[in-house]
Amino acid sequence: MGNTVNDHRAPDCVFCTIVAGEIPADRVHEDDQVIAFRDQNPKAPVHVLVVPREHRRDVRELAEQPELLAHLTSVAARIASDLADGDFRLIFNTGATAGQSVFHVHAHVLAGGTLAEGEM
Ligand code: AMP
Fold first, then answer.
1. What DSSP designation does 110 have?
2. Which residue ranges make up each domain of the chain?
3. Please, which residues have CB within 8 angstroms of residue 6's CB and are 6 or more apart in sequence?
4. How far apart are CA 34 and CA 113, in angstroms?
5. Rounded CA gap, 53 and 102, in Å?
6. This prediction's pTM
7. What is the pLDDT of residue 5?
8. Where are the alpha helices (DSSP H) in 8-89?
9. Whole-angstrom distance, CA of residue 22 vs CA of residue 24
10. What CATH architecture does domain 14-111 belong to?
11. Does the C-beta of 25 come closer than 6 Å to ligand 1?
12. Residues paired with residue 52 on neighbouring β-strands, in sequence order
């Protein structure tokens, strides 16, 4: 499933490479629209990234497909229920100044403990 052809792949995008199954990731969910995998540098007991299979730069672009954005959000909620107590923080860093370092939109799902105010 990770190797389905993706016409919306961007060159030199690490998350497109993960979607294609060309580099490993610790996947916790996948379907025909999104995949989710554990962040390699976790900031909470559960720190998962939910990523659309098709390359979109950021949440502004993703919002042009409201159904996909809604699906991604519901997957995030399900992951928080499956891997933690159901409560979660959802973060879309958008733009370099706001801390976005990978320009393939991803929702950070943080869960599994009491998250401090302002903590990622
Ligand atoms: P952001 O700074 O919001 O763009 O978040 C990018 C996130 O991607 C960071 O939290 C990184 O730790 C994470 N990350 C980058 N490369 C990988 C990878 N190959 N596997 C898992 N997580 C990654």
1. E
2. 14-111
3. 16, 19, 20, 53, 54, 55
4. 25
5. 14
6. 0.94
7. 52
8. 14-19, 59-62, 66-83
9. 7
10. 2-Layer Sandwich (3.30)
11. yes
12. 34
* Residue found by looking up tokens 């389905």 in the block: 4
Residue among 93, 28, 7 nearest 20 (CA): 7
> E strands within 39-116?
46-52, 89-91, 107-111
Helix (H, G, I), strand (E, B) or coil at 66: helix
Q: Which of 55, 104, 106, 108 is catalytic?
A: 106
Q: How far is the CA of 15 from the centre of ligand 1 (A)?
A: 9
Residue 46, Cβ neighbours under 10 Å: how many? 20
DSSP 26: -
Residue 106 falls in the annotated catalytic set: yes
Q: How far apart are CA 5 and CA 85, in angstroms?
A: 35
Which tokens hold the place of 102? Answer: 């990978």
What span, in angstroms and rounded, lies between the C-alpha atoms of 105 and 118? 21
Per residue in 26-38, pLDDT (tens digit) is 999 999 999 999 9
